[in-house]
Design brief:
Strand content: 35-45%
Number of helices: 1
Largest sheet: 5 strands, antiparallel
Distance between the termini: 46 Å
Number of strands: 9
Structural class: alpha+beta
């Protein structure tokens, strides 16, 4: 009886992990645009991002300036905007619960430098 019980628990564990992985699967954000190369990491754009389970996570390899994160819908209407000071710009996590599901959004990241503007789209 013990081997059957352990096999049962194994399958329950396996299926529960599959459902958690499916819900929390992250999608990477592919940026377009430019970022000033004044002080630079090896990447052209020092900011990477991913959307995972109603959360936008931005990692900044070179947090040397304040940034502004803007969310727009497909018509170009600003849905949400967040100012992030330099001291907090190394890692930014923003909840996306308030954005309606089933839509495509554009994320635009800018700074006070006019040549800094990167953008990406994601579906929620």
């Amino acid at each position: 009886m013990r081997p059957k019980l352990s096999i049962l628990f194994f399958f329950i564990f396996l299926f529960s992990m599959e459902s958690v992985t499916g819900k929390m699967g992250a999608s990477c954000v592919t940026w377009r645009g430019s970022w000033d190369p004044a002080s630079r990491s090896l990447n052209d754009i020092p900011i990477s991002g991913q959307v995972a389970d109603n959360l936008l996570i931005l990692s900044n390899d070179c947090p040397d300036r304040d940034i502004i994160i803007t969310f727009m819908d497909t018509s170009g209407t600003v849905v949400f905007e967040k100012y992030v000071p330099q001291s907090q710009s190394a890692c930014v996590m923003l909840p996306l619960e308030e954005l309606p599901d089933g839509n495509i959004y554009m994320i635009v990241v800018t700074s006070s430098n006019p040549s800094d503007k990167i953008y990406a789209t994601f579906e929620k």
